[in-house]
Design brief:
Elements: H1 3-13, E1 32-36, E2 39-42, E3 47-50, H2 53-56, H3 65-75, H4 89-102, E4 106-110, H5 113-130, E5 137-141, H6 150-154, H7 159-162, E6 172-175, H8 183-200, E7 204-209, E8 213-214, E9 220-221, H9 224-236, E10 240-244, E11 268-271, E12 283-287, H10 289-293, H11 315-331, H12 333-347, E13 357-363, E14 366-371, H13 380-390, E15 393-394, E16 401-404, H14 412-430
Parallel strand pairs: 3-15, 5-6, 5-7, 7-10, 10-11
Antiparallel strand pairs: 1-2, 2-3, 4-12, 8-9, 11-12, 13-14, 14-16
Helix pairs in contact: 3-11, 4-11, 8-9, 12-14, 13-14
């Protein structure tokens, strides 16, 4: 069967996420036959550089030998077991490794990023409730995105996802964000933020942020100084800090975790996506013994944290996560990321000269090219997407923002092609 046959069959039965399905009347769906390294291959023999790591998850490329081997080995012994009253070696090993990496104490597992955010919000609220305090509000940042479940949407601020559901969302307050990545802008914005802390701190249980990069918020970026300053405010006003590193964790920003650049320790750390190298659904909330102790009591006090998922700590997903950490440990990945980030930054300087480019920005292996404010009806980003596919590169824009978040194994020649195609696509749009 060829692409067209699979496409027709798919559209008969499947409803795809973040997609206006009517678009596929003119925009061909791409059925993927296989993946290898940075490439995805369709049924017509075309290949595409996966410059977005298949929604930011596939950090070591497709069908990675190390992860493949680990998952196959796990299949022979245990595919799944309940994780309530039972445990398994892989989960113990992974939790210990993550706690050592983050300098945190306890891991609570789930199976996707939005669920991890839900857990952290519930846990922060419940922590204060167990202490006898009713704190029903949450802080987050303007322009933020944290997922698409009810709680996660509530603390987000991207109308595209949130506006429809506002009547059924929980209360949250969005704080201002810096206009750029400078120290000066960070300090100015922190002064504005403190006004909110002063006014609401007795009613707010937590502040949730994506440190350094607001990924689905059009890749807006801010300084580590801003992150550190928010942590200081949280400590001053007794509010718990949740770091959503679902997208920015595991090397994506140039350090193992984004908050390392700010030199802080969060109260909750949400992790997913790159955690399993893009293989299997898995997420976690990593927290402190201080939080844990507020839930540790006799059964009759009814203070336990009751949140569960059927596939919590799935052994196959856990095996892929442990293999992913093995690669980080053995291959000096962080240094390679830093070198490739510098190379990409050098290559994209030419975008500044294009009249339809407003700004370029980068944090680690996240690079954004923001075009001028084309009307949304024009769908400028979609034109870049289509041009990319025709030329062998998967570019999935966020509105008028073209970005690169490729697998870390991408080669320099592949970077050259990725950048070249994006450049020609944007230049062509401006003519």
């Amino acid at each position: 069967m060829k692409n067209n046959e699979f496409m027709k069959k798919d559209l008969n039965f499947n409803w795809h996420p973040c997609t206006q399905m009517k678009d596929h009347e003119f925009l061909p769906l791409i059925p993927i036959k296989k993946g290898k390294g940075v490439y995805l291959y369709d049924f017509d023999g075309n290949r595409y550089i996966d410059s977005i790591s298949s929604w930011w998850v596939n950090i070591f490329g497709h069908t990675n030998k190390t992860i493949n081997k680990a998952v196959k080995k796990q299949l022979k012994t245990l595919e799944h077991t309940i994780f309530a009253g039972f445990t398994h070696k892989g989960a113990i090993t992974l939790s210990e490794r993550i706690c050592k990496l983050t300098n945190l104490d306890k891991v609570f597992y789930a199976d996707n990023g939005s669920s991890a955010v839900e857990i952290s919000l519930k846990m922060a609220y419940h922590y204060y409730l167990n202490k006898g305090e009713q704190r029903e509000l949450f802080f987050s940042l303007k322009n933020s995105y944290h997922g698409e479940t009810i709680g996660a949407l509530s603390v987000g601020d991207v109308d595209l996802y949130k506006k429809t559901y506002k009547p059924i969302l929980i209360n949250s307050i969005q704080l201002p964000i810096p206009k750029n990545q400078t120290k000066q802008e960070a300090e100015i914005t922190l002064q504005k933020c403190e006004i909110y802390f002063q006014k609401y701190h007795k009613k707010v249980s937590s502040l949730i942020i994506e440190p350094l990069v607001q990924c689905a918020g059009n890749m807006k970026m801010h300084s580590p100084i801003f992150v550190k300053g928010l942590k200081t405010l949280c400590e001053k006003y007794d509010i718990k800090l949740i770091l959503d590193e679902i997208a920015v964790g595991f090397g994506r920003t140039g350090t193992m975790f984004a908050h390392f650049q700010a030199g802080i320790k969060p109260d909750f750390l949400c992790l997913s996506k790159g955690l399993t190298g893009g293989y299997l659904p898995l997420s976690m909330v990593v927290t402190t013994n201080e939080i844990y102790r507020e839930f540790y009591c006799d059964y009759t006090k009814l203070k336990a944290f009751l949140h569960s998922h059927s596939y919590t700590a799935n052994p196959l997903a856990i095996a892929s996560a442990n293999a992913t950490l093995d690669i980080f440990e053995k291959k000096k990945i962080i240094k390679k990321i830093q070198n490739k980030s510098k190379y990409i930054w050098k290559k994209i300087q030419k975008f500044k000269k294009l009249p339809n480019v407003k700004e370029i920005r980068q944090t680690g292996m996240i690079t954004a090219i923001e075009m001028i404010d084309y009307p949304f009806e024009q769908r400028a980003g979609l034109e870049i997407y289509k041009y990319g596919l025709k030329n062998g590169v998967l570019l999935r824009p966020l509105g008028n923002v073209i970005y690169f978040m490729p697998p870390y194994i991408i080669k320099y020649k592949q970077i050259d092609k990725m950048v070249k195609v994006a450049y020609k696509g944007i230049k062509r749009l401006g003519n």
